[in-house]
Every structure is written in C-alpha cells, then in structure tokens.
Amino acid sequence: MKLVTTVHSPKASLRSGLVALLALLAALVLTVPAATAQEGRVKAWGSNSNLALGDDAATTSRLTPAAVPGITPSDITALTAGHEHSLALLSNGTVESWGRNSEGQLGIGTVAHQAVAATVSNLTGVRAVSAGTLHNLALLQDGTVRSWGYNNAGQLGDNTVTQRTTPVTVSGLTNVEAVAAGGYFSLALMSDGTVKAWGANNAGQLGDGTTTNRSTPVTVSGLSGVRAIAAGGNHSLALLSDGTVKAWGYNASGQLGDNTTTNRSTPVTVLGLTAVRAVAGATNGNHSLALLSDGTVKGWGANTSGQLGDGTTTDRPTPVTMDGVSNVRSLAAGGSHSLTLTREGQVKSVGANGSGQLGDGTTATRTNVVTPVSGLSSISLIAAGYAFSVAA
User: CA neighbours within 13 Å on the CB side: how many for 122?
Assistant: First the structure.
C-alpha cells in the first residue's frame, strides 16, 4: 500500500496543480476586459493638433469620442482644458497632463508634446486645477497656489515673465478658495469673498482700474461677496452670493453682458441674471455662460458659430437662453463651442464643429443643441479646449 501511495500521489498533485492553473488563467481572462473598459472612460474628441486628444495616431481630429490613454479614470476628481492641452486632478492630490507642451504647460520639466498622460512634477496636495490658454493654476490644500507654463505677461504670478516647465509658487497668496486661469491672466477667489488677479491686463481683465500687466496678484476693485469665478480669453466673471454676476475686461463681442461693447477695467453687472448657480468663460474665446438654479443655461458674447445655442449666429451683449437643454448640472466653454452636462450624465454640445469638437460624427456647425454627444453616458466631468472636448 505504501508503494501504491507513492506512485499515485504525484499524479494527483499534477491534476490538482493543473486545475489551479486553469482557474488562475480564467480569472486573468475575466479581469482584462474589465480593466480595459475602465481605462476607456476618459474620452476626448475634436482637434488633435499637438496631441490635444492624448492620441498619437496619425489622424488630425476625432469626430466622436475616443479613449485618452494612461489615466485611471476612477481616480479623477476634476478635468480642465487649455488651448491644446488638458489636466486631470486625481483623488490622491496629484495632476496628470497631456497634449501641447511647447510652453511647458504640462509641467513635466520638458517642452515636448505628450500623447500619453504624465504626472505634473513636484505637485501634491492639490484640491483644484484650472487650465488657461498656455498656463495652469493649481490650488493646494493649504490655500496656496502653484502655476506653470507660459508667462509672457506675468500670469504665473511669481514676479517674473519667465516661462516655467514645472510648478512655481504664486507670490503672496494664502487662504485661497478657488482659481481660474484665463487667456494670459489668472484669478483667485479669497476666503473673504474678494478676488485677486495677475497677468495680462490690456483690456482691464484684472479689474484693478488700470490696463497695466501685473506679475504678482492685485485686488479686483469694488468686489466682495463672491462665491465663484471664471476666466475667459480676456474677460473675467464673478458669481456673487446673491446669485447675480459681475464681469470685467474685454467686451468687443458683448461678453461682459452689460448691453455694450465697451471694455471695463472694473466690474459691471451682467444684466438680467438672477438665481445663477455657476458661470463659465471661454478661456480660448469670447463668450460667457451661466447655469441657473432651475437647470437652464444663459449665454452672451460672441456667437459667430452659434456657441450660445439660441439658434442664431448673432453676438449677444446681454444673456439669452440656450435652446434644447434642461436639468443641466455643469458647463464648459471652448473657443467657439459650448458643452453642457445633464444630471442624467449626458453631454450636449453646440457651436463650431470644424474639427469635430461637438462629437456628433460630423463637422457641421450647430446653433441649436439637439442631440447628446455620440457614445457617452454616465458622465460626471466635462472640459472644453479651443477646438476639442474632454469628458469622464
């Protein structure tokens, strides 16, 4: 009996080992598709100039959403887009970047464009991010602000006009609650409800009563009780605690909403707006959007591509209602297009579409919001660049 036991025991072990190996391989096979599906949750569409979509394929644009590689989507808490680059804030307080990098706006210590998302250098403890045209801002948990990228007008706020390929500290800022990066200028909302501004000021977009560029923060004149801020190409928006909106800066297209086209170097009231919940300025353009408490959207300013969604291509110096959207929870304004995200997780788009930035499978301009962006559902975050869009 001992001999029989000695002969058959290895065969039993072999069979047992094969069963375990097959079970392991089956588990691996089942796991791979799930990981791949999750990785595809971050989508981008529109112009792929300078790898804006995080897509190193030969194509110059995508007419419908495609996956952005290199990001774990479950970790993303915020998205923001500049002219041809994007940032994703992760739940661990770090930031990923991809796209154009000729001005160091990816913050990775080089000026090489990046098709796959890379981690911004020397940056942790981030709670909010904002992408400008060619520069970025990051608000840290301690209430201070970091900046990097192009700095021709002092928009990095470090008292220089030196381009930075990794983050530097914005001078003299503490107790910051929110940040907004515009064309070539920057805004910070302070804990006391006032606003600081720095960078380009050619159109009065810093709101300090002058048109002098500033390489360190100055206080926006006559503004208090602010609860949110947004920055356009050359204009600024502030949402007040009473639900009204103030604006200042460039106004050639009526983007200040005061029924004029006169530039303003101090804040003026956007006419006809109450019960506003959120605002968005076209960082790479000249239009403005407001989300109302009833889930509808108002727009004003440039409308040459129908980006205000009122069925026309007429610029509007006061707010008009965006047609075809309701139950909206967030907004994004691109160069000449606009995005809305509904509470059901649908993304809708309107405006310029020459590069497919509306994501409807065509390059036809749309002046009315009609259908959701193709192939997207359960979306929680949106961002709009100059001629591309991102969602997660």
Answer: 12
The dihedral through the CA atoms of 46, 47, 52, 55 has a sign that is positive
Q: Which residues of 276-310 are buried (b: 16+ CB within 10 A; e: fewer)?
A: bbbbbbbbbbbbbbbbbeeebbbbbbbbbbbbbbb
Exposed, middle or buried by CB within 10 Å (0-12, 13-18, 19+), for 345?
middle
Tens digit of pLDDT for each residue in 216-249? 999 999 999 999 999 999 999 999 999 999 999 9
At 73, the pLDDT band (50, 70, 90 cuts) reads low
Q: Which residues contact 45 (CB under 8 A, 6 or more apart)?
A: 53, 62, 63, 64, 65, 66, 356, 357, 359, 373, 388, 389
Other CB atoms closer than 10 Å to residue 242's CB: what's the count?
A: 10
pTM for the predicted model, two decimal places: 0.89
Average pLDDT, the chain: 90
**Amino acid letter for position 385:** G
Q: Which of 48, 41, 64 is nearest to 358 (CA)?
A: 64
Strand order from edge to edge, sheet including 185-190 = 176-181, 185-190, 195-199, 214-219
Residue 73 · residue 392 · CB < 8 Å:
yes
CA–CA distance, 140 with 129 (Å, rounded to integer): 9
Tens of pLDDT, residue by residue over 167-191, are 999 999 999 999 999 999 999 999 9
Residue type, 289: L
**Neighbouring residues of 24: CB distance < 8 A, sequence distance ≥ 6:** none
Residue 327 to residues 292, 300, 370: CA-CA distances in angstroms?
10, 20, 15
Q: Give the helix ranges, DSSP H, for the chain.
A: 2-39
Dmax over CA atoms of the chain, in Å, equals: 103
Task: Report the distance separating Cα 97 and Cα 371, nearest Å.
Answer: 30
Dihedral of alpha carbons 139, 143, 148, 151, sign: positive
Interatomic CA distance for residues 317 and 308, integer angstroms: 12
